[in-house]
């Protein structure tokens, strides 16, 4: 394999896990399913006495992460007056989390662009076998990255580092957000990201195998 094709191999091997994992991150944290499931499981609205259903709370998180809610500001009735559920630190932390997720879209866009370009080059040059090999390299990198993510979440030091990377301001004793986004929420998030990423990878693999399928003389 020439140097140019080795470069293309490297691009695909990196782009495949980048596209699948970042797509999974955005799907998991922007859609309401994860929030609604977890908030209903722990009945967070009743535990904190928010006065709103868990489903509504989950949809609020989703709307904020999708940008439909500009500010992370939720009001509820408390002792005959309207009160904000989240304080300024909680709002700032969630805004930072959304900003990181939004930045990931730029990386995702670049990954998709590189993926399309390299696919086109391999197909135009009729290097279908090389394209398949490159995709298998992407599967290997995808697997390694998932293992590293789960390993990072398993150890306290790396998990704390990731937590502080997302939530840059220390929560106060009265803040309710840590009661919602618990360690179990993080564990379920990781499982959901792995599952969604695997589904996306299978779809990409199916498309790749179809367009690189060698021609048969009799079938």
Model description:
Helices cover 75% and strands 4% of the residues. The chain is mainly α and 219 residues long. The chain has one domain (3-211). A two-stranded antiparallel ribbon has the order 1-2. Helix 1 crosses helix 9 and helix 6 packs antiparallel against helix 9. The longest helix has 37 residues, at 88-124. It is elongated. The model has no long low-confidence stretch (mean pLDDT 88).
Helix content: over 70%
Number of domains as seen in the coordinates: 1
Return the average pLDDT rounded to an integer: 88
Q: What is the total tally of β strands?
A: 2
Poorly predicted regions: none
Reading the helices and strands in chain order gives: HHHHEEHHHHH
**Broad structural category:** mainly alpha
Quickly count the helices: 9
Describe the largest sheet: 2 strands, antiparallel
Radius of gyration: 21 Å
So what's the overall shape?
Answer: elongated
Strand order within the widest beta sheet: 1-2
Beta-strand percent range = under 5%
Measured between the Cα atoms of the first and last residue, the distance is: 30 Å
Entry keywords:
elongated, 219 residues, mainly alpha
Short recap of the structure:
With 219 residues, the chain is mostly helical. It has helices spanning 3-30, 33-42, 44-48, 54-66, 88-124, 128-154, 156-166, 177-180, 183-211, and strands at residues 75-78, 81-84.
């Amino acid at each position: 394999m020439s140097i140019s094709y080795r470069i293309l191999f490297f691009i695909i091997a990196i782009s495949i896990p980048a596209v699948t994992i970042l797509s999974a991150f955005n799907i998991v944290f922007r859609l309401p399913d994860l929030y609604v499931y977890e908030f209903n499981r722990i009945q967070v609205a009743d535990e904190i006495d928010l006065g709103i259903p868990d489903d509504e709370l989950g949809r609020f998180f989703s709307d904020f992460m999708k940008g439909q809610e500009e500010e992370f500001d939720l009001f509820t009735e408390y002792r005959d007056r309207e009160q904000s559920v989240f304080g300024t630190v909680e709002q700032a932390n969630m805004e930072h989390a959304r900003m990181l997720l939004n930045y990931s879209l730029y990386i995702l866009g670049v990954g998709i662009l590189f993926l399309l370009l390299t696919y086109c080059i391999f197909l135009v040059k009729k290097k279908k076998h090389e394209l398949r090999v490159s995709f298998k390299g992407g599967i290997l990198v995808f697997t390694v990255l998932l293992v590293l993510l789960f390993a990072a979440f398993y150890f306290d030091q790396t998990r704390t580092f990731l937590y502080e990377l997302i939530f840059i301001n220390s929560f106060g004793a009265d803040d309710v957000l840590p009661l919602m986004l618990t360690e179990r929420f993080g564990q379920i998030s990781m499982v959901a990201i792995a599952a969604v990423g695997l589904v996306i990878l299978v779809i990409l693999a199916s498309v790749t195998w179809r367009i690189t399928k060698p021609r048969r003389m009799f079938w």
